[in-house]
Design brief:
By secondary structure, this protein is mostly helical. It is built from six helices and no strands.
């Protein structure tokens, strides 16, 4: 028996990739552009690096451009964020408030392994090359 939404899996994956990438980019916009309440990251090189990665990789993931590479970098950044910022507060994400970092890490790892999918700029560029 196939899953009842399997015929829509490409569209659902594209929606997940877009929404996750966009929301991740919003975190970068908060750090780098002062959007959505902003953050003061002056003199905090790790936050500056995080903001650059979040804004650029989140945008690339949402668009489906260079997705496997961008998602791999984003996954790594979220693993670093979890272990540097959350893990010292306890081992369990529910206790150390690291759930979002952990989820982003594994969603981006999946996207990196899966690729952009057919509804992406990457797919359109590959199709144009043929």
């Amino acid at each position: 028996m196939s899953p009842f939404l399997s015929k829509h899996s490409s569209t659902i994956f594209a929606a997940m990739r877009f929404v996750t990438g966009f929301l991740y980019a919003c975190h970068g916009a908060q750090k780098m552009l002062g959007a959505f309440g902003g953050m003061d990251i002056a003199g905090k090189p790790l936050f500056i690096a995080a903001g650059i990665i979040e804004l650029s990789c989140g945008s690339l993931i949402a668009l489906g451009l260079l997705t496997p590479f961008a998602a791999f970098i984003a996954s790594g950044e979220m693993a670093v964020a979890y272990f540097l910022m959350h893990f010292p507060g306890g081992a369990w994400p529910i206790m150390n408030h690291g759930e979002l970092s952990a989820v982003y890490c594994f969603v981006f790892l999946y996207i990196s392994a899966h690729g952009s999918g057919p509804l992406s700029i990457d797919a359109a560029l590959m199709k144009a090359r043929k």
